[in-house]
Write a structure and sequence with these properties.
Blueprint (H helix, E strand, L loop, with lengths): L3 H7 L15 E20 L11 H7 L3 E9 L2 E6 L12 H18 L3 E6 L2 E8 L6 H9 L9 H5 L8 E7 L4 H4 L9 H11 L2 E9 L1 H4 L5 E6 L6 E6 L1 H24 L3 E6 L4 H8 L7
Parallel strand pairs: 3-4, 3-6, 6-7, 7-10
Antiparallel strand pairs: 1-2, 4-5, 8-9
Helix pairs in contact: 3-4
Length: 296
């Protein structure tokens, strides 16, 4: 559980966004529109009806022409957070589910603290989304919603993503272990896999994708030994497996291949991929490993 001191430190950061906001509500993001703010943008010639308070008299003294100062208008952006609540997330001594809740809380706090609009989604039931804005005073609603998440069953990530509210350019964060058959399917030479299609969809929607790949310590550092009966937590499929050196080597090879593929996909989609180890100290994970997603 993250405490008040943690969030005070977190308040110094904000999420990186590759697009300028085009929404109408005031916020903390640079907009595609010109307006009044503290950040100077450009000069333009005076036109009848312009506010004389924005006149630059120093330029007039030098050029004998009237020029208006324009400033960058600041608007809110939309930060969408899609949380994988499938059964596979409820695994690990330090569970991926608890890590997912912490990560969603962090992203939610950063969004609200920067006056962005936050939309949280349960990927198992996209109709249970929570849309909230109004600054950090609304953060209590976020914590309450996250605390009620239940991790069970299966999800279809691509189908869920297509049910997102279509608003404007923004940030879309996916928190998941990505241990789903349609995501794990290998990318064919002539046809992109589901993971690549997911990123392609975000690019089409002008979203900056942030992939927070949650994994349990037991999945990253295999310690199982002997012959075991393994049961899929989502499908109940069973497999009998002998955990010897060769099996573990093959697993590690496939895992590294998956991680490399996911990093490559994010790089091509101009997004961010970060492996999130549920067994790692939260301060190190949030303030060090997640540096890539902060605008600092």
């Amino acid at each position: 559980m993250l405490d008040a001191k943690f969030y005070d430190t977190l308040s110094r950061l904000r999420l990186y966004m590759s697009h300028k906001s085009s929404l109408n509500m005031s916020g903390g993001r640079k907009s595609i529109h010109k307006g009044i703010s503290a950040e100077f943008s450009d000069f333009r010639e005076y036109m009848p009806g312009d506010d004389l308070r924005r006149m630059d008299w120093n330029v007039y003294a030098r050029l004998d022409k009237l020029y208006i100062r324009e400033y960058m208008e600041e608007k809110e952006a939309v930060v969408s957070v899609l949380i994988d609540t499938s059964a596979s997330m409820d695994y690990g001594t330090e569970s991926k589910a608890e890590l997912a809740k912490d990560l969603a809380s962090v992203v939610g706090f950063l969004a609200l603290n920067n006056m962005d609009r936050l939309i949280l989604y349960d990927m198992k039931d996209m109709g249970r989304g929570l849309s909230v804005s109004g600054g950090r005073n609304a953060f209590a609603k976020v914590l309450k919603w996250i605390s009620k998440l239940e991790f069970s069953g299966e999800i279809d990530m691509l189908s869920a993503a297509r049910k997102m509210q279509k608003r404007a350019p923004g940030i879309t964060v996916i928190i998941s272990d990505f241990l789903h058959a349609n995501i794990l399917e290998k990318e064919e030479k002539l046809q992109k896999g589901s993971y690549e299609k997911l990123l392609q969809y975000f690019h089409f929607c002008k979203q900056y994708p942030v992939i927070l790949h949650t994994m349990a310590a037991e999945e990253l550092r295999i310690t199982l030994e002997g012959t075991l009966n393994l049961i899929d937590s989502e499908t109940d499929a069973k497999i009998r497996l002998t955990m010897d050196e060769r099996t573990i080597t093959d697993y590690e090879k496939e895992w590294n291949r998956l991680a490399a593929r996911m990093k490559k996909g994010c790089k091509a989609g101009r997004g961010a991929y970060i492996l999130c180890d549920a067994g790692k100290d939260r301060n190190q994970l949030i303030f060090q490993d997640l540096k890539e997603i902060y605008d600092i």
